[in-house]
UniProtKB/TrEMBL annotation:
One of its GO terms (molecular function) is cyclic-di-GMP binding. Pfam families: PilZ. SUPFAM superfamilies: PilZ domain-like. It comes from the Bacteria. Residues 5-109 form the PilZ domain. This is PilZ domain-containing protein. InterPro entries: PilZ_domain.
């Protein structure tokens, strides 16, 4: 049995996002769940191969850009784990290392709103 290691509540999502690995390399991903502490993203084998090519820089850190409430959010993240769901589909868990105050506040507000609607 796995114990829960997450420090922050998370919310299921299907947010389109862009993962920036370097100035020249970015891939489109979907954020499956989101918290102030990190996120789970899903992407094609293109995402997996781009991250593998980036592996000499270990630990792997990326920027992830997405939108919440029609405002941009940017998070600098570290790759924590990778799961292959099928031949051409991967999920990657990221820990948020840094984000600007507006991004952090947007995520907190969205999570608070989500929590309130779940209780009602």
């Amino acid at each position: 049995m796995h114990s829960e290691l997450r420090m922050h509540p998370r919310m299921p999502t299907k947010l389109p996002a862009e993962m920036i690995l370097s100035e020249d390399v970015s891939v489109d991903v979907i954020i499956l769940n989101l918290s102030v502490g990190g996120m789970l993203v899903e992407g094609s084998d293109q995402m997996f191969h781009a991250v593998q090519a980036h592996k000499p820089a270990f630990p792997i850190e990326v920027d992830i850009y997405f939108g919440l409430q029609a405002l941009p959010v940017r998070s600098h993240c570290r790759l924590i784990h990778t799961v292959r769901k099928r031949q051409d589909l991967y999920q990657m868990g990221f820990k948020a290392l840094s984000m600007d105050e507006q991004s952090s506040n947007l995520i907190r507000q969205t999570l608070d709103d989500y929590t309130l609607t779940r209780v009602l």
